[in-house]
Every structure is written in structure tokens, then in C-alpha cells.
Amino acid sequence: MWAGLHHHAMAGAMTRYNPAAIEPKWQAYWNDHDTFKTPEGAERPKAYILDMFPYPSGSGLHVGHPEGYTATDIMARYRRARGYDVLHPMGWDAFGLPAEQHAILTGTHPRDTTVQNIETFKRQLKMLGFSYDWSREIDTTSPDYVRWTQWIFLELFKRGLAYQNEVPVNWCPALGTVLANEEVINGLSERGGHPVERVPLRQWVLKITAYADRLLADLDDVEWPNSTRIMQQEWIGRSEGAEVHFQVVGHDASIEVYTTRPDTLFGATFMVLAPEHPLVDAITSDRQRADVTAYVEQAKSKSERDRQASKDKTGVFTGGLAINPVNGAEVPVYIADYVLWGYGTGAIMAVPAHDERDFEFATAHGIPIIEVVSKTGAASGAPLAEAMVEQGIAVNSGKYDGLSTAEFKARITKDLEEAGKGRARVEYKLRDWIFSRQRYWGEPIPIYFPVDTDGDPRVGAEFSIHYDEPMAVDASELPLRLPELDDYKPGKDPAGVLARAADWRFFRKDGRWYARETNTMPQWAGSCWYYLRFIDPRNESEICSRELAERWLPVDLYVGGAEHAVLHLLYARFWHKVLFDAGVVPTNEPFKKLVHQGMILGEGGQKMSKSRGNVVNPDDIVDAFGADSMRVYEMFMGPLEATKPWSTSSIAGVRRFLDRVHTVTARAEASARSDAALTRLLHQTIRKVTDDIEGMRFNTAISAMMVLSNELMKLEQVPTEALEVLAKLLHPFAPHLGEELWGMLGHSPSIQHQAWPEYDPALCEEDEVEVPVQINGKVRARITLPKDATQDQALKAAKSADVVAAQLADKPLRKVIWVPNKILNLIL
RNA sequence: GCCGGGGUGGCGGAAUGGCAGACGCAGGCGACUUAAAAUCGCCCGUGGUAACACGUGCGGGUUCGAAUCCCGCCCCCGGCACCA
To answer: CATH 3.90.740.10 spans which residues of chain A?
Structure first.
């Protein structure tokens, strides 16, 4: 069969480049020959090259998807050619809200929608010729996969890292659902404008805070974009400070505060509790009670977002006083919503002179401001115009006066600790991860609870569930599957949709009734560990064999959008560390090198969106130009990480380039030899393309191949050996054309099995260089010199140029700057 | 406000201390053609006939030499947003 192809190609210098014909042909070849199957065994070096897998939405692939996928595909094909065993898989992050919304509206089972969408996505990805090992395809909604997601949950549960807590959520009774913060506007639901309440609801929470230090420290070990590492650092938000106890006047209670500036303790002129603080009720005086109650109520009715939207420093005095432990001063205690209940101790000592927020509050409420830190070491005496938040020298601080901020902090923390009035403390902004959703289309949480009932709760008997006695479903019973429902609409019960599936929810064991957890997992769950399952996707007895995990981890290259810089990448790292502690994985971190592809904008430079009508559909592009043109164009647009606008006329230019490569390859002459200039260009091109692929600078790699093909076009006789090099360099970018060219040059497939071309650095060197001659920094002439000429040779050549000679005749030469092969600068 | 990234021809971009504008798009001229398309060749930062001058967001600095390094400012994009 392939002999026939050669014959056809050789006969057909007239045969035109026809992607519509060759692309399906080579896709079928790869498919039939398992060209991209991940090799077994471990003799060769490995490369695990991974894309962030997509949510298979109903609208199919958009042009943003293939950008990252093409980049990883080039890396995968390049590494194979370089002798690596490559793992390059693809799968589906298929749980998610859109399929559930569609089910609510149409009654279609989310699984049916999902299966259909996956089919579309897969067809489109295959159309683009990506070299995935499809035998490892994963779907996070398949029972095989859900089983192990649930297994990890149980592992978290057994380790005390999954617990239940009453967490205030945005519950909308009219919609019968819990809303995310961004779905609530001014206390009303974004859709429908129904009232939303902050109600405490039992939730499953994962103790990610237990891993905060490791998640922070190990960021040093990964090759990630700096911006992403910084975002994660800030999200974790570690700070070192002190906890200080303030005795409440007239009560047997003390207020604990957290501060990063214990050195400003002498400047604490009031305290603030978060409105939710449990001491509020006790310390509020009768006189202030009405005001305090009203303020607390008001804070409760606002969403977290609305509370944070206003920067005004509102608050009320509780009537209570507390004693400053360092100087015995009595300070008033306020409540204000600028103090957050979820951070630190939910209470602060307020130092208006040295904290902007406290300064604003003090100014608004007429509270004294005492300066305790100064740049010079002397108090300014005058009232401060604004808070001085920098470090400095202590003043007005008794025996501590004159200490630097750092010394003061260390001393007072020690003194407080000795006096039993405080201690050093580390705080994090990171909070535990609310892991339950009141949804249908997610992994059921494999937990059940004992039930008290006097009948059969499946048919309406009264029951009460002992949520405080959660029990793990036995691993042998996994996967715990979702029940079939007739109706996916959220109901009145905040326990979620699954609560209505009574036959599924309640079961009897050893004469006792039990109820299953009716919350499901969030979409993050499946994407937290899919990279692990790709390593051993059909293993029925383990999540992943230890041997294969050792072979393939960590992921060497992970490419995906920057929108996942924090949540997905932090959650996945957390689970990975838990699995490391459980002995499942051998590495600290899952993803060694991370790259974010930039966004592709519409033709007008605006974000692509249906409403703007500027969405480009990959099917149309492949129809018009072919998959290889689309791939090469997306890589040629600019740096991978950059945001850049789509341009259909530019893709036509890329298509012309591929056309020319096809045409010039058809002119191959086996007997022709490369002359010195062509040999040099060939070696330079190999070097440039190789280096650029290693650095993922695909745009400049393509440019170098364009230069080579332009030169080849000019030749009378085009040497086969040069065309072979071009085909090998081009094939990771334009794989179908690469195979076709390889056949045209008389070889049998696949070009993927050919070794990557090597260059000889000596042959890359030019033997002559053109050097600009500057006079006082301005270019006045150019001279041609042998490579590595000396300053004397350069000067001599420069003086023979008319312009230079004329200038030198007028003025004396004061200084010569000679950078070999680069520049000659004469200072007169 | 804070953090991160960026600002270069008509457009996408290249050059990270040494000839600014590689490569491509768009545009112009020419060849081929009865003609058009396609293809091929040449031109293409601005001003100027030219010599030359000017030119990488703006203002300053360092340097023989700056798109590139430093200081100050403006604008655009992304993220975070009272975290004590």
C-alpha cells in the first residue's frame, strides 16, 4: 500500500497539497498502527506531557483549546523523536453544572448530554491530529473513575482531613439552592432577584490548612511561572505575629487578638470584635445593647461580598472595656465588620497611629491616636495626618523605647509569653475547603449516618439523622453510584437533590436504618488527581500501581490556562501531598513544569464570545485551511503565553508556507548536494528550531523554517537531504504534512520514528561577517571581515571606507571600541 | 489601593547591552494569463530629490553604545481586594 503512495507522490510533481485528503489518511494510519501508544518498559528516559483536560461543553471546542494542545503535541512529538518514552493522554472533566442545568430544563439525563458532548470534543481533537494515547482516555464521570475519587475521599476522611462543619452559605429558598458568592447581588439572587439568606448549613470541609506550610515551602521546587507561584503564596497568606490576651473589665473573660505588630501594643487605644464573635453578647452593656443587636443583624443579612464591597469603617461601641496587658490602660471594645470572623481570632487590638484601617475607624469615631513608632526615634508630637505603617523605632512605649521594630517584636513576644498573656503565633489566609455541593451531577460522598425512625423512612416515616456519627462506605462497595431521578430540579431541602431519592438514600443494615450523605463533590474533585490515573488508567485493584507512579511522576510539562493558577493547582497539590503521605505517589509535587497558554481574542482584539458574534470555530478553520495550517498558525501568532488576536488572513499566509514546502519537496533531487551556504543554513536552522522548541518559542521556530523554505525555493536543484531535514523539523508542528513529505521523499512511515536531526556547531559558523562601523555611536559604514578578525584588521578595513577616512582626516581618533564580530565604534 | 504582565511600522510580532523592525499579514509595482484567481519576483517605519535627520508609551539618568539596565510618570490587560 505504501509503495503505491510513493509511486503516486513521485509521479505527481503536479500533485497539490491537499490537507482535506491527507489529514484523514494519516489520522487513520496513526490509529491503525498505534503510533502514539505509550511504550511499556523503562529503558529510555520518560516525558509525561499533560494538558489541562477540558470540560466537554455543548458548544464544542473553541480556538483557545487547540493552542495549548498544539504546544504539548509539538513537545510530545519532539521528545519521541529525541528518544523519550512519552505519556501524552487526554480525558474529560465531565461532571459540572451546565449538563445539570440542561437536565433541569429538558429532563435529559446529564450523562446523555455528557456522552454526546464528549463525542463532539473527541472528533474535533482527532481532526487536529494530536498524538494522544487514546487507549488511556479518562472520563471523570465513569463509575471506574468515580470509584477512585471516592476512595481518595475516604482516605482523607480516615486521616481526619475531611470533617463536617456548619458553614454559613447563601441559601435561596425561592430557587431551592445554595448560591456561590458571585451569584448574590445586594442580598438578592443574580437570577430572578429572589431574597438570599445567610444560613448555616452542614458541609463537608477538607483540612487543606493542615498542609499550608508544605504547600508554601514546596513552591520553591517547581518550575512554574513566577506570577502563579506568587498568587499561590498570597492565597496561602502566611504571617508571623503574636496572640495577645486582653482581660475584659468586670467579666471573667479575656479577648484574644492576633497581631503582626505586637511592637505597637502601647498604641492600642481600642479593640474591635467581628460581629460574629461569641463574646459580643457577654460584654455588651445594657445601654449599648440595642445598637449592638441592630449592627449584628445588619451584618448577618449582608453577603460576604457586600460586606467587603463597602470600605466605610462602620461599627458600634459595645460598652465593654478591656485592659491592655502591657500598661494596664482600659480601652473601649467595639464591633465592626471590617474585622473578619474567619481570620485570626476574629478580634483585633486597634492601633490607629500605625494601621490605616484603625486610623480611619478612630478618626470616624473620635478615638485617641497615640504614636508609638517613629522613623527617627523621637515622637513627632503633632497629630498624625495618616497612619505610619512602616517599621521604625519605638516611642511612648515605656521600657521598650528606642528598640527597632524587629527587636521589639521579639522581646515583647517573649515577655508576654512569660507573663502568660500571649504567645507567638502563625496565621494563614488560606481557609479549609468547603467540599460539598447540593447538586446531582457530581460524585456522591461515600458516607452514611445512623437514622432514628419508627417506620420506613423511604415511605414517609419520621426520621432523624445522626450527622455527628459519619461512617465510611466500605471500599469494597465503591463506586457508590448516583440514583436515577425523574426530575433534577432543586427542591426545598437544603440537603440537596439527592435527598429526594429516598430509595437510594435510606437503607437497612443489621436491623438498623441508615441514611447516605446527599451532598455531592465539587467539580474540582475529579480534576484533582486525573494526572495520576492516566498513568495506570485500567487498574482495577489500585488507584495506580506504585511501580508505574515511580516510572512516570511527576508530570514533566503541564499546560493550561492561567485561570486555574490558584484553585485547581492548589487543590491538586494538596491531594497529591495527602497521597504522598499515604504512600501512593513517590513525589512531593505533581507538576514539575507549568506553562499557561495565553488567551486568543477575536479578530477585533475583543474577547471571543457568542454575544459579540466573534467566535471562531475550529471546524470551519480546518475545512478552509486544514488542521496543519491551524496548528502552525496558532503557534506562529506570537509567544505561547501572550494574549493575542485571531486573524484569518494571517492563517492564509501560513497555509501558503505549507503549500510552498509541499511544492519544493516535490522537486527533490536525490543526486543534488548542498553547497556550503545551504549546509550552513541547514545547520543553523536545526539549531534554532531545536533550541526554540526546548524553550517553547514556537513562533520563532516557525519563522526559521520559513527562512529555510524560502531559500530552498530559490535553488535550481533541491537536494533531498535538505528536504529531509525540513520535513523532520516541521513534522511536530504540521504532523500530517510531515508524514506526507516523508513519503514523497521515498521513505516509509512514520516520520515520528525518525531521529531528530543533529547540527554541527562548527558548520553553523559564518566565515565572513558584516560589521557596522560607528563614529561616535552612529553607524557610518559597514565592513566585511573574516570571522573572528582582530581589532587591527577591522580598523584597517574601516579606514579604507570613504566616509570613515573623511571623518578621520578632520579629527584625531580618541578611542576605539571593538567587539569582535559585532561592532567597531570609533570615538573622535 | 496592592501584586503580576505588558506598551516596538497600517496589523501580529522579532531583536533582552552592539546594524531596530527577522518572519508573516495587509498594501504597492511587475511577470505569467485572452482575463481573473492562484503562483512567482521586487518594494514597503516617518520626513527628505539626496546627503541626512527623526523613530521602540512619556520625562530624566547610566554607557563609547539603550527597545533592552536604573529613577520618576502615563496608559492597557490579568489577579487579589479591609487577612490585623
So the answer is: 239-427
Closest nucleotide to A817 by C1' from CA: B64
As assigned by CATH, the class of the A239-427 domain is: alpha beta
pLDDT of the residue at A12: 40
CATH number of A642-763: 1.10.730.10
Instruction: Kindly state the helix (H) or strand (E) to which residue A805 belongs, with its residue range.
Output: helix A802-810
Q: Is the dihedral of CA A118, A124, A125, A127 positive or negative?
A: positive
At residue A284, what are phi and psi to the nearest 5 degrees?
A: -70, 130
Q: Residue A305 above 80 pLDDT?
A: no
- CA A645/CA A498 separation, integer angstroms: 45
- Cβ–Cβ < 8 Å for A130, A469: no
Q: What is the DSSP letter of A109?
A: -
Output the CA torsion sign for A427, A430, A434, A435: negative
Q: Which nucleotide is nearest to A311 (CA to C1')?
A: B82
- For nucleotide B81, the protein residue with its alpha carbon nearest to C1' is A308
What b/e string do you get for A698-717 counting C-beta neighbours within 10 Å, with b at 16 or more? bbebbebbbebbebbeebee
Is A766-827 in CATH node 3.30.420.280? no
Give the DSSP per-residue string, A461-501. Answer: --EEE-TTS-EEPPGGG---PPPP-S-----S-TT-GGGG-
What pLDDT does residue A380 have? 81
Assess contact for A687 and A761: CB atoms under 8 A.
Answer: yes
Q: Which residues in chain A, range 710-749, keep a C-beta under 7 Å from any nucleic strand B atom?
A: 710, 713-714
Residue A610 confidence (pLDDT): 82
**Model confidence pLDDT, tens digit, residues A84-119:** 999 999 999 999 889 999 999 999 999 999 999 999
Q: Where in chain A is the domain with CATH 3.10.20.590?
A: 766-827
CA distance A255 to A692: 60
Between the CA of residue A823 and those of A787, A794, A812, what are the distances in Å? 12, 9, 20
Supply φ then ψ for residue A578, to 5 degrees.
-65, -45
Which of A292-301, A394-403, A472-481 shows the lowest mean pLDDT across its residues? Answer: A292-301
Phi-psi region of A315 (alpha: psi -120 to 50; beta: other; left: phi over 0): left
Indicate where chain A has its CATH 1.10.730.10 domain(s): 642-763
A345: nt with nearest C1' to CA: B84
Q: Are strands A768-775 and A823-827 parallel, antiparallel or unpaired?
A: parallel
Mean pLDDT, range A755-771, rounded to an integer: 92
Residues of chain A (604-663) having a beta carbon less than 7 angstroms from strand B: 605, 636-639, 642-645, 647, 649-650, 652-654, 656-657, 659-660, 663
Q: Give the closest residue to A760 by CA, choosing from A674, A677, A701, A686.
A: A686
Query: Measuring from the CA of residue A260 to each C1', which nucleotide is nearest?
Result: B84
Q: How far: A355 CA to B17 C1' (Å)?
A: 44
Residue A551, number of CB atoms within 10 A of its CB: 18
Nucleotide closest in space to A241 (CA vs C1'): B84
